[in-house]
Amino acid sequence: MGLKYIQPAPGFKEYLPKDYVDLIDFGPFGKEVDVQYMGQYKEILEEHPMCAGCWMAYFVRVFYASLPNPEDTIVIGTAGCARLALSQAAVPFIYGNYGDTNAVASGLTRALNIRFPDKNKDVVVVAGDGGLMDIGFSMTLHSWFRKEKFTTIMVDNEVYGNTGGQESGMSPKGVQLKMAPKGKKFEKIPATELAKLAGCVYVVKIAPTNIKRVAKVIKRAVLAARHFGPTFIHAYTSCNIEYSIPTEEVLKDAREREKKDFGFEEYMTDEVREYFEEIEKKEKEAKAKK
Amino acid sequence: MYYVARVDEEKCATYKCKQCTLFCPEANTLMFDDDRNTAWVNEPRCKGCALCVYVCSDLLKRDCIEMVMVTAED
């Protein structure tokens, strides 16, 4: 963790794997690379075993490309699809037991604050709908009640994709799945409403179709969590296997869902709004000077 | 035999749009070459989902990417 751990000792560079050397020479560490340049530098995410055309894999790619300080970030995941890609990146990754991601993140955030009181170390939880809203429900909510300062990102594929298609609390009402043949009888859990009630200072609901907006939201969520309190992003990342979406139409599906029930919603407290206005004004001034 | 995306580089170089590189779900796979002004595919990493074809052909109507079958010798 930290820039000096990424740089190899003098003389050792030539013995390192090519992917690692590329990451030092052409990677995003230590510089602020805009998400628009994705595809023009060496990304911190590597090859991973997620399905072809998976929208969650896409979200994870954009997530790693939008972190404000990847060299000072720890990512926590849990059982589920997202961890397959999350763990294959040049950012420390902790695999929590199923459901306890937010409890692990709480302890880790506090420990980092004691160990590095003068530095910003970001903790980000990225887990699925099962990990955060079903099995990890109590720990997720309690970390928000306690106002723990870290970011929680829910990659919502509306099903237990890893284990064959059981319905989750986030599946829409009436949907028929392989392991829920009669159709789901209950409504989808209103996760963002719960987050607002539980005291999150920044809450977003988003379908990742506009890359600039996704990057902005992730950056804001991480920055707000540094200073104010818990932040939450609810992202729609479809499961093209369990919902039988042809891979080339995954983006089309996301755009349709965005129009239907996953429209962009952003909530923040007044102090967070003031903070964003301040830092974005500074950024604009710095750009104008260039 | 693998099913991968292939970019028509001459055609792509006339647009300089980079949109496909922003929608590929795989990292370090569909890259943009600044010198030649074209996108290119790192074929051993491509999983063949054809999302880039949807972006290039259906959304932008530019038809620069097609899906092809390649063998290990290619």
- Classified by CATH, the class of chain A is Alpha Beta
The sequence of SSEs of chain A as H and E is HHHEHEHEHHEHEHEHEH
What would CATH call the architecture of chain B? 2-Layer Sandwich
- The largest beta-sheet of chain A arranges its strands as 2-1-3-4-6-5-7
**Count the helices of chain A. How many?**
11
Annotated CATH architecture of chain A: 3-Layer(aba) Sandwich
User: What percentage of residues of chain B falls in helices of 4 or more residues?
Assistant: 10-25%
Q: Could you give the count of β-strands of chain A?
A: 7
Q: What strand order characterises the main sheet of chain B?
A: 1-4
Q: What spatial form of chain B do the alpha-carbon principal axes imply?
A: globular
Which class do the helix and strand fractions of chain B yield?
alpha+beta
Structural class of chain A: alpha/beta
Describe the global form of chain A: globular
Rounded to the nearest angstrom, the radius of gyration of chain A is: 19 Å
Proportion in β-strands of chain A: 5-15%
Contiguous low-pLDDT stretches of chain A (5 residues minimum) are none
Based on CA atoms alone, the radius of gyration of chain B comes out at 11 Å
The portion of residues assigned to helices of chain A is 40-55%
Q: List the quaternary state of the chains.
A: heterodimer
Listing every helix as H and every strand as E from the N terminus to the C terminus, the arrangement of chain B reads: EHEEHE
